[in-house]
Amino acid sequence: MTDLRHFGLGVAALCCVSGSVFALSPGDVVDDFRLNDENGQSHELYYLSDMKAVVLLAAGNGCAASRAAAKALDALRAHYQAQGVEFLAIDSNLKDTPESIAKEVKADGANLPVLTDELQLIGESLGFARNGEVLIVNPQDWKVIYRGAAEKGGNHYVAAALDATLAGAPVKVSHTDAAGCDIVMPERDRRSAHAKISYEKTIAPMLSTHCVACHREGGIAPWQMSNYDLVRGFSPMIREVVRTKRMPPWHADPHYGVFSNDRSLTAEETKTLVHWIEAGSPRGGGADPLTEVKKDWPVWALGTPDLVVNLPKFDVPATGVIPYQMWTVDNPLDHDVWVRAVDFLPGARSNLHHIIATIGGEMAPGDKRDNTDGSLADYVPGSEPLQIPPESGILLKKGAKFGFQAHYTVNGKPVSDVTQMGLYFMDKPPQYRYRAAIMANPRIKIPANTKAYTNDAVYKFDREVLVYSLHPHAHFRGAAAEFVAQYPDGHEEVLLNVPRYEFNWQTTYVLKAPIVLPAGTAVKYSMTYDNSTQNKANPDPNREVPWGQQTWDEMLFGVIRFRYLALDANPTRTAQTSP
Amino acid sequence: MIRRMMIRARYMQVLVLCAACGAASAGVLAPGGHVADFTLKDQTGAAHQLYALSGKRAVVIMTQSNGCPIVRLAVPALREIRERYRSQDVEFLLLNPTLQDTGDAVQHEAEEFGFGMTILLDRTQQVGEAWGVNRTAEVFVIDPKTWTLLYHGPIDDRLNYESQRPVHHPYLTDALDAVLANKPVAVATVVSPGCLINFPHRKRSY
Q1: Does A15 or A135 have the greater pLDDT score?
Q2: C-alpha distance from residue A255 to each of A102, A366, B14 (Å)
Q3: Cα A390–A396–A398 angle (5° rounding)?
């Protein structure tokens, strides 16, 4: 161990600018990352590519050096922000929580957003050793241009580095020693232990559990985790998508709510996977469990459906942006039935991105239909079939029509898709109807060239309800979503926070334990849109964007699935949709 | 004796690491830099020498790895550009500098996605290392008169992770138009989205 570290330092001294091989030095590239701040807002480093410089401060609660540095940076902020410099603090201290950070920030009257690095993965890779240390990054090439103290002995290092960078000149003093409070990082000194993480016993089983459902032959994922060589080849990419929270595709803030369809890795798994990759993705001994992954996936996970509905055939081109497909399909049944489960069988699994299935088409705001004529089920890759809790069901009336919104993605080759929907019926009517509350605002107008524009819709429950799931929906410009319950006694509770909304993944967040909302509870659903050029999915940042079904327009649209708590004596009409 | 051998082994390791270190920072190929010759086999087993293309007016090489959605979506665009510049003696090639993709696997990918392009297999990663390749879908434009690198970046600004949008900056065709007009390339380096390629011997800062 000691040997290894000395060896590493020796190498650095011989050939690199300065610092150990495990610390970022001026000239090194900072890899991308995404973290939530103390208020649950998401920040991605590489999103800041339109900035001239990004100043990162290692911050910690109760640390005088960190406080002094934050104050010094705060003083620079007003001046330099106008010139395109972003200032962010990162708290990598294990003892600090978003709550305690928010409290400290409030008490200090500080203005820097504090990103919470609870897994320490970002602090470790930035080489943060002390709270109070500053790192300045140049977004042109993401290289470190300064590392050290904010200021010392009257020397304003950060201001000098920023002035030089803004003038296109090299930074004269690019490395100083920062005093400050040590950050306890237990994993930082365990690099040799990370090299012993077992591919066979730990990594491959983790990938099998969380990734292989899509990263398999015929799955939607573009590559297959079918052996060690492929995993090793994609290792840096796996590290990047995990650090930027692109994969696994689960976008809920873990601080609010517990969801039964949570696809994320646990904190421990995430750390283990990233540390294994940073140790060079060692193969170690033993078998390769990924070569043994099952080849025969069940056609219908719940058995043969009671009714199979064929969706229209769709020819997916090799490349381009495909508009959402909207289809209406007749219900062939001549009698009413109650639906207990819904599943989808994609024809072209690698291209079908999502389906939103409804009875009678998607509900529009102000729609006065019985809302069991509304939402049916969603398909996203890797999702489980919808299984409605046993006491509830969805009424499918004879003569009703199914509505489908299908989204296809291109992958470089043309294919044809015919997807099937399988419905499973109940033997007798349920005690409760499985209902949907629609929250929408068709009057949204998203201003052009705006990085964050938030709008909301409120739904008030006039009866006591049991909430099963929450579904935020927007298009290319959707950036963040939140569901907040405002209880009759006045207190508020975040039911779901999606700090980075990703339109590609139309996830319904299913509560592990359904929650009771008393009569009179209002739920506020808000969506934040990014209509700037920094949103890489934005087709036209210069346009004021109105409501519309297609992805180049926008929707403020949320769905809460619930049942009444009291028995449905006469389950006919439901509460109205929001105005 | 044993001790001396160990020291020597360690010394050699240091040198190897240092070479990689240089490749990742100071010694890396940048626009204006010299492109060394190489000979690589393609997915069908045929050998290609870079300097055999000295009669061309420009050589365009884009990095590729199997299973990367960005490069799968970039290849059709590159093919279209090849058609547009067909009469102007510009050579277009793909380069696979990965450890994991065998010739057969690359051939399979090329057929499945109808790449219709020659893919050079850099199985030892020598070219990828020397050129400072980081991701797939990175384009290198080379001047075969002087063997200097003229452009390193994406085809354009259309593709990103799980998204695409209309092109606003056609970096590659801008570069080619400049080269063919004997003018300097205005934008010679652009940060490129794509799949990170594993270069295990390159010095990394984590």
Answers
A1: A135
A2: 14, 33, 45
A3: 145
pLDDT digits (tens, 9 = 90+) for A378-395: 887 767 788 998 889 998
- The residue in chain B having the minimum alpha-carbon distance to the alpha carbon of residue A244 is B161
Q: How many whole angstroms separate alpha carbon B19 and alpha carbon B27?
A: 9
Query: Can you give the pTM of this predicted structure?
Result: 0.89
d(CA A9, CA A18): 9
Q: Pick the residue with more confidence: A138 or B3?
A: A138
Q: Is A24 helix (H, G, I), strand (E, B) or coil?
A: coil
Q: DSSP string covering A160-178, please? A: HHHHHHHTTPPPS--B-PP
Predicted local distance difference test score (pLDDT) of residue B3: 44
Q: How far is CA A468 from the centre of its chain?
A: 20
Q: Which residue has the tokens 């969706």?
A: A311
Is A418 an interface residue toward B (CB < 8 Å)? no
Interchain CB distance below 8 Å, A413 and B113:
yes
Mean pLDDT computed over B46-65: 98
CA distances for A62 relative to A36, A180, A422, angstroms: 20, 11, 57
Average pLDDT score over chain A: 89
CA distances from B64 to A9, A87, A443, B122 (A): 35, 36, 45, 11
In this prediction, does ipTM exceed 0.90?
A: no
Q: Quick check: A319 and B99 CB within 8 A?
A: no
> How many CB atoms lie under 10 A from the CB of residue A168?
7
Q: Which pLDDT value is given to residue A363?
A: 53
**Burial (CB count within 10 angstroms: exposed 0-12, middle 13-18, buried 19+), residue A185:** middle
Say if the Cβ atoms of A27 and B66 lie within 8 Å. no
Distance CA(A330)–CA(A241), nearest Å, equals 41
Q: Give the whole-angstrom CA distance, residue B76 versus residue B82.
A: 10
Q: What pLDDT sits at residue B27?
A: 62
CA-based nearest residue to A451, from A63, A47, A114? A47
Task: Please state the rounded mean pLDDT for residues B154-158.
Answer: 97
Give the up-direction half-sphere exposure of residue A189: CA atoms within 13 A in the CB hemisphere.
7
* Partner residue opposite B69 with nearest CB, options A15, A141, A411: A411
CA A88 to chain centre: 20
pLDDT at B18 over 50: no
- How does DSSP classify residue A198? -
Residue A348: predicted pLDDT: 86
A318 vs B: CB within 8 A? yes
Torsion of CA A545, A546, A552, A554, to 10 degrees: 110
Query: What amino acid is encoded at A409 in this protein?
Result: T
* Whole-number CA gyration radius for chain A: 26
